[in-house]
Structure prediction request, 1075 residues.
Amino acid sequence: MRWLPAFLSVSLLAGGSLAAKKTSEERFKSFHSKSLSSAPLKLSDASYRDLTSAPRDYTAAIVLTAMDARFGCQLCREFAPEWELLAKSWTKGDRAAESRLLFGTLDFLDGRDIFMSLGLQTAPILLLFPPNAGPHAVASADPIRYDFTNGPQTAEFVHGWIARHLPDRPHPPVKRPINWIRWISTFVIVSGSLTASYVAWPYIIPILQSRNVWSAITLISILLFTSGHMYNHIRKVPYVASDGKGGISYFAGGFQNQYGLETQIIAGIYGFLSLAGISLAIKVPRTANANAQTVLALVWGVLLFVIYSFLISIFRVKNAGYPLSLPPFM
Amino acid sequence: MSADPLDTLATIGKGKSTRSALRVVILALIAAASIASRLFSVIRFESIIHEFDPWFNFRATKYLVANGFYSFWDWFDDRTWHPLGRVTGGTLYPGLMVTSGAIWHALRALTIPVDIRNVCVLLAPAFSGLTAIAAYLLTNEMTTSNSAGLLAALFMGIAPGYISRSVAGSYDNEAIAIFLLVFTFFLWIKALKQGSMLWGALCALFYGYMVASWGGYAFITCLLPLHSFVLICMGRYSTRLYVAYTTWYALGTLASMQIPFVGFLPVKTSEHMPALGIFGFLQLLAFLDYVRSAIPSRQFQSFLWIFAGGIFTIGLAGLVVATSAGIIAPWSGRFYSLWDTGYAKIHIPIIASVSEHQPTAWPAFFFDLNMLVFLFPVGVYLCFQELADEHVFIIVYAVFGSYFAGVMVRLMLTLTPVVCVAAAIAISTLLDTYLDTKTPPEDQQSAEGSEKKSAKPGLKSASKPVVGVYSIWSKGLMVGSFSIYLLIFVLHCTWVTSNAYSSPSVVLASRMPDGSQHIIDDYREAYQWLRQNTKEDAKIMSWWDYGYQIGGMADRPTLVDNNTWNNTHIATVGKAMSSREEVSYPIMRQHEVDYVLVVFGGLLGYSGDDINKFLWMVRIAEGIWPDEVNERSFFTPRGEYRVDGEATETMKNSLMYKMSYYNFNNLFPPGQAVDRMRQARLPEVGPTLSTMEEAFTSENWIIRIYKVKDLDNLGRDHISAAAFDRGQKKRKATKKRGPRVLRVE
Prediction:
C-alpha cells in the first residue's frame, strides 16, 4: 500500500488536466466505441491516465503486463490470449455497455512511467478500478489488485473474479471460439488410424498377442511407477538443479523430494537389478554350455551385488540416518 | 563325499508328513514374528491408541461395548460437529468395531477379563499374523514351488509398507482390511480356478466383510472386473469365470448394500460401474456361448463377436451419458483425485491438505519395500512364463497397484501384498534353481527336443529347455548373496519399524544429550486438563486434526473433527482462525465456543503445529469466503510466509498468530524471542488478545488453550474493555460515543 499516495497524486494530476476537457460519460463513450473494434484497449501512459481519471462512473479492468521478449515474462505471455478472449467475449456480449466495464492492457514498454509510479516489481498484475461516481459508485475508489500467485489463470476464473466485484450488473459469459483445427485434426487422426489398423490388422495381431510385448509394457510401467514418475508428473519437479557451486546436483536433498533425472537414474538401477534377477532365474539355467553358464552366473551375480550396494548408498544420501550398507559403496 | 551330509539333510524334509508339519511350524513362527515386530511401541511407551483416527474408532468401540449393537447402529453423536451433530452409526464402516467387540465378548465368555483398550491396541498385530497366512495361501495358488508361499508370508509379515499401518495401537480400518483384501483375493483365485460356487460365495462373504471395514474396498470392486475383462480379451472366457464372477458379484453386492454407509452406492456411483458392466457382459457372453454350442457355424461365430462388442460399446456409451446426465453420481472427489491429482489441488483444498493424499517419491518405495521393489518386476515377469488365469491376476494387480501407490502415499498399503507375492515367486525360483544339489551331466546339449517347446507361444527368453546349474561356484555365489540380501531385508524392516512407524504421535520421544530418552507428553497433559477443569459440555474449537483426540481423550464436544464430512463447517473454523478478533469473536459466539485449542511448536521446534498448517486453514476458508479471506495477504510482498517482525498485518492480526505467540516473548530476555521451528526472531512486543484469555499452556507449550470471554459486563466491546484494563486512556471513545445500543446477543 506504500504506492497508493504516489499513485493517487499522479492519477489525480493527470486526470485533472484531461478531465477538464471531457466528462466521465464522454470518456466512456469514446473508449467503449474503440473497444468494440479492438478489445482489450491497448493503452499508453496518457490514455491510461485518461481512463482511470478521477470522476468516473464506469469500471476499468486493466492488466499491467510486460510482453517483450527481453523481460522473459512467461506468465504474461500465457495470460495474454486468455485476457483477450475474456475482453472480446465480454465486450461482444454487452454491446449496449450495460455493465459499464472497460478492458485495457498496458504494456511496460508503453507505460514505463505508470509502472514506476505504481512501484510495480512484478508483472502481470490485474487492477480493477471501481467507479467513484454514478449509480455504481463505491466508497473506496482504490483499485482492487489481482495477483497471479497461482500461476496463469483461465479466462473463466478471472471472469468469476471480476463478476464478484460487479454485483447487479450483467456478466456476459466467456465464449471460447470453436477450435476447428483441433476438431479436424482429431477426425483425421482417428479415421487415419482406423484405416491403418484395418490394413495392418494381420501384422498387428501377432504383436497384440505377443507375450514379450506385453511383458515389456508391464515391466516398464511398473518401473516407472515405483521410481516416482507419478510424483514428477503431479508436482512438476525440476529435471536437475544446480548445487550452488556451478555443478549439477543429481539428487535432491530430503526424503520427500526428488528431481526428474534422479528418478530416471533410480528407474535405470531398478531395471538393471530386475534384469539381473530375470537372467539369473531364466537365462542362466537354460544355458547349455557349462563354462558360458558359469561366467554368466558369476557376472550377473557380482553385478547384482555391486549395483544393489550402490542403490543403498544412494538411499543413504536421501535418508541420512540409514544404518545399513554393502561392501563396495560403504 | 560332500553330498553325504547334504543328502541326510535333504532326506529330513522328504517325508510328506514331516514337510507339512514343518510348514505349519514355520508359518506359526512367521505369524509370531509379524506380531512381535509390531510391539515396539507398546514396549517403549505403553499400551496406548495412536494417531488421530484410531481415537475415534476406539471411542466408537467403547460405545458399542457399552450400549450394544443396535444402539451403536442408530448412534447419533451430538458431541461432535457442534451444533450439527453426526449420524455416526450411518456414516462409519463398522467392521473394525464389531470385530474387536466380538473378540472382547468371546474373551469374556472364556472368562478372560480383558480391557477393551487392550483388544483394540493389539488387534492390528493379531490380524497381521492372519495376513501372513493369507499371503501364504494366495502365493500357493500361483506356483508349485514349496518355498514361495512361506517366503511370501514372511515378506508380508515384516514388510514396512504394511507395518506402517498395523503397529500395536494403530487401531484403524486398515488393521483388518489388508487381511480381508488378501484373503478375498485368495478366495477369488480359488473360485476362478475351480469354477466353484462355494468358493465364490465365500469370496463374496469376505468381500462383504471388507466393505464393512474399509472404504478401500473399491479397490477389489474394480480389480476383479478388470481381471475378468482382461481374461475375456485374451479369449479365455470359460464357465469357471462365469460361475465365479456372477456368484461373487451377486452375493457380494447384496452383502455390501447391507452397510448403511454404503447403501445404494453399488448401483449408483461410477466406481462400481465396471463391476456391473462386466456382470452384464458375462451374461451376454454366456448366452452367446450357449447359442454357439447349439448352432455350430463359422460365420455365426464372427457375428457373435461383433454382437458382443457392439453391446459392450453401447453399454459404455450409456454409462457415459448417464454419468453426464447426472443419473449416476459422478466420480466422488477422493476417488477422482486418483486419476487427476491436479483436480484435487484446484477444487478441493481439504483433500490436498491431507498428507496421505500426496504422491509418492521414490525413497518412500525403497523405504517401505527395500529389495522387494526390484524383485517385484522379476516375479511379474516369471508370471508371464506360464500365464494361467491366476498369473494374469497378479500382473493386472501389479500394474494398477503400483500406479495407485505412485499417486497416493497411502495406497502403498494395497500394493504391498502383490509385491510380497511376486518377490516371493522370484526368490523361490532363484533358490530352487541354485539350491539344487543335483548337477546336470555335462553334455546334454541337443538331447532335449526343443521343437516341442518352441511351438508354444511363450516368452522368448524361456524358449530353451531348462538344463540346471553346473558349477558349484555359481551356486555358492547366488545362495550366499541372496542370504545376505534376505538378512539385510530383515535388518531394514526392523530398523524402519523401530524408527519410523512405532511412535504413537500422541506421545513424542526425544533424546537427551546423554542419550537417555525424554518423553514429551504435552498432548495428554492438555487433554487431561480439559477433562478435569472444564464443564462436561464445554465446546472446544480447534483445527480438525485434533477433533478425534479431543473427543476421545478429553471427552469434550468439538466443532470439527477428522471425519471431514462438512467442508463449510471446517471453513468456518478456518475463517475464525485466520480473521481478526473482531470477526472471529461473533463466529465463536454463534457456535457457543468455550475454549480454543491451538498447537504451537515454536518453543520446542515441533514441526506439526498449527502455524505450519495455517495456510491450509486460509485456503479452505478462502474456498468458501473468497472476499473475506485472502491467501495472498498472508504473504509478504516478496512472497514469503513469515512470522517475525516482517509478517504482514493480516498475519499478525489473525487469531491463530495471536494465540500462538501470545506471551511467548515473556519467556525470553527482551528482544530475544525466537521461534525455534521457523528460526524467526519475533518482534519485541508480542500480540495482545482482547476477546479471549489464556487458560492453559502445556509444559513445552505444544498445546495452548484459550477461554473465550463472555460478553463485557458494562456493554463495552472487548477491544476497548481490554484497552481500559491495560490502562490505556480512551482517545476518541469519549467524544464519539453514540447512542446506547441494546445488547441482543
Notes: Residues 446-455 of chain B have pLDDT under 50 and may be disordered.
